[in-house]
Design brief:
Elements lengths: L3 E2 L24 E8 L3 E9 L10 H5 L2 E3 L2 E5 L5 E4 L1 H14 L7 H14 L11 E10 L11 E11 L10 E6 L16 H5 L2 H9 L4 E5 L7 E4 L3 E6 L2 E5 L9 H12 L4 E4 L3 H9 L3 E8 L3 E10 L2 E4 L7 H14 L10 E3 L1
Parallel strand pairs: 1-3, 9-10, 9-16, 13-14
Antiparallel strand pairs: 2-3, 2-8, 4-7, 5-6, 5-7, 6-18, 7-8, 10-11, 12-13, 12-15, 15-16, 16-17
The structure holds pyridoxal-5'-phosphate (PLP).
Length: 354
């Protein structure tokens, strides 16, 4: 399929101070759009100036949330190349989400070509300062102007780009996490493993509660027994217990993070013992009390590795590694960001040049 390109006649001024980019507030000059109609399939792939789109108020996405999205980043290397980190995994996951949401699959190879083309058009928007990146947000929405809960027959696939600042401008700061045992995020059989808006809408109330209690993020427990650890906010979560790295197995209710998979692969390549299994919050608390809870960290595209300095479970406060980042978290952070930014050799074959 050809991608037509219409360049903007009025390029926006690019942000001058890259230390003030923040996250997801500024968008580049162009966006990718493709339509789906029953019968025609995906068609009319185009790169057009970034701007508002016109949808009827009855568009199905507004009412029933039939949509999916993805998130990944492109990084500028010191020698001026632009690298994507495992983008194929994101488009593969988009199709896993599509399948669950009854959205027609996209051609993953074509989606990657479209993304590369879009970034090339907006290449001057890729920020260059240490730790900055170009955030990539692909998404698909049901747009039929029709009420009634059923699969749509018209969809839009779009990709928008946003230059974002360094997540840790002042070095890796461990975060405080609140273990939520009232609200739940997802249950097996539901949509927890899909990246779909409803999961995030459902998480806001608990996030607000944690913020009121001065915690940065929520650690979710399983939706049935509220005993087993699932994930943290927009991150997967890892525990170093007596030298072994333990992370919840992909059980159908948590998102299969690309950073999670990358961390597991790196840890194994270093000879570290990794277990993907059911992990009870009680087991974590017991490990803490016997001095065996060495490190806790989250993994996700935004922060890459986020060390956890404190966990609050039913007002039991666990201070991890003296509230400081531990050696495994630091090594993973340095290795993954090193590969992403081209500072370290990409021994895993994870980067894709734009
Ligand atoms: C709910 C949730 N879990 C985990 C992750 C981490 O996934 P990834 O490493 O692919 O960014 C994300 C972010 O996409 C997320 O939204």
């Amino acid at each position: 399929m050809n991608i037509s390109i219409t360049r903007t006649a009025a390029p926006k001024e690019k942000p001058k101070d890259q230390s003030k980019l923040g996250f997801g507030r500024i968008f580049t000059d162009h966006m990718f759009v493709m339509d789906y109609n029953e019968g025609e399939g995906w068609h009319d792939a185009r790169i057009v100036p970034y701007g508002p789109i016109s949808l009827e108020p009855s568009a199905m996405i507004f009412h029933y949330g039939q949509g999916i999205f993805e998130g990944m980043k492109a990084y500028r290397t010191a020698d001026g190349r632009t690298l994507l980190f495992r983008p194929g995994k994101n488009f593969e996951r988009a199709n896993i989400s599509n399948e669950r949401l009854c959205i027609p699959p996209i051609d993953e190879d074509f989606a990657l070509e479209a993304l590369k083309e879009l970034i090339r058009v907006d290449i001057d928007w890729v920020p260059t300062n240490e730790g900055t990146s170009l955030y990539v947000r692909p998404f698909i929405i049901a747009v039929d102007p029709q009420l009634g809960v059923h699969p749509a027959s018209h969809y839009l696939f779009m990709i928008i780009l946003s230059p974002v600042g360094a997540y840790y401008p002042e070095g890796l700061n461990p975060v405080k996490i609140y273990v939520e045992d009232d609200y739940v995020r997802a249950v097996k059989g539901g949509i927890g493993f899909a990246k779909t808006p409803g999961n995030y809408a459902a998480s806001i109330r608990a996030q607000e509660k944690a913020a009121e209690l001065k915690y940065t993020q929520v650690l979710w427990l399983d939706g049935v027994e509220r005993k087993y650890i699932e994930e943290v906010g927009t991150m997967n979560v890892f525990f170093v217990i007596d030298g072994t790295v333990v992370t919840p197995a992909l059980n159908g209710s948590i998102l299969a993070g690309v950073t999670r998979d990358s961390s597991i692969q790196l840890l194994k390549s270093w000879g570290v013992k990794v277990e993907e299994r059911k992990l009870g919050i009680r087991e974590v608390y017991d490990a803490y009390n016997s001095g065996k809870l060495d490190e806790v960290f989250g993994t996700g595209t935004a922060a890459v590795i986020s060390p956890v300095g404190e966990l609050n479970w039913e007002n039991h406060i666990m201070t991890i590694n003296g509230g400081k980042i531990g050696p495994i978290s630091q090594k993973l952070y340095d290795s993954i960001t090193g590969i992403q930014s081209g500072k370290l050799p990409d021994t895993m074959g994870w980067t894709v040049e734009v």
